[in-house]
Amino acid sequence: MSSALATIADPALAAVPLHAVLPTATATATASAKLVYAHAHPHPHAVGGTEVAAVVAPADDPLHVVFVGGTVAGIAQVLVGHPFDSVKVMVQTQSAAATASPLQVLRRTVAAEGVRGLFKGVTSPMSGVGFCNAVLFTTQATFNSAIAPDSTSPAKYAATGALSGLAISLLACPMELLKVRVQAQATSGAGKHYAGVWDCLVKTVRAEGVQRGLYRGWTITALRDVPSFAAYFATYEILRQHDVAPFLAGGLAGIACWLPCYPQDVLKSRVQSTAALGRGPLPAHLRPWTMAAAYVRANVARALWRGLSPTLLRAFPANAATFAVYEVYRAQFGGNGSTIDE
After folding, report:
1. Beta bridge partners of 5
2. CA dihedral over 137, 140, 145, 148, signed as positive or negative
3. If you average pLDDT over residues 283-306, what whole number do you get?
4. Nearest CA to 328 among 57, 24, 34, 59?
5. Residue 90 and residue 270 in contact, taking contact as beta carbons nearer than 8 Å
6. What are the DSSP E strand ranges found in 48-179?
7. Nearest Cα to Cα of residue 10 among 192, 218, 161
8. How far apart are alpha carbons 177 and 174 in whole angstroms?
9. Nearest-5° angle of CA 26, CA 51, CA 76?
10. Is the pTM of this model over 0.90?
11. Residues 195-213: what's their mean pLDDT?
């Protein structure tokens, strides 16, 4: 996941940390993002407040603004979070890491491959997460407008987040399968099967096809993304309604989204890292649910949380960056942020 993605995903500008680094223009963008959010997501106890009144543009951003903003935000998420994700996948899938801590896996990887080893498979999410994130944010905005448009309840955002998660799983599954297989392989010798993401794509389609190959593990991916994005968007919206800074709200939403779905992500990584071995009848031991059940029986339930620490370490900064970039983009180019009384 990501889940989604999980990756598709997923935070905003915290005034103090970013202003300590970025120039005054960023402070202006942060203030604009706050005004944009206040109008599009009115605080239930502050209707008619000065911040809401200051924005005179319509409440909804054009979908093209949401789409492009989501794309840029997704790229920021990959740049910040991919090294953590690489450690997570190696802990989840490599037998040598079964008894090693994430820190030991990190040290071993850097010693053997350098920092480049932490960016294995980055081509797949870099080329796909931006688009997936754009689809995710656009889908979420569409569902928010179609389902109880006047409601700002947590249940509404959980429902629209769940529907968005189901939709994004169709894009996330093949992208994450390629990423997982490249990340999980050995760096050299007989265990190195793919030269890179595109080589993995070609070989997977040739050997296994699209449905059995690229979409291997889709059901588990969907079972991960539905609760994940329900928690993700509900947490973010609730915190923003209580005036929590976008950067902090996004980081906490990123952590919250993993709690109801991490076991599914472990099983997904195990299933997707194993090839289906051709187009013929799938052997019983390679069927996704058979593999999942066998893994649980062999490793007991605690194994379903293996690799959680690097995931949570990644979740805060990656999703904080996601919403930081997204809210600033909305403030600069969205319909809501284009006309603000000064």
Report:
1. 7
2. negative
3. 72
4. 34
5. no
6. none
7. 161
8. 5
9. 35
10. no
11. 89
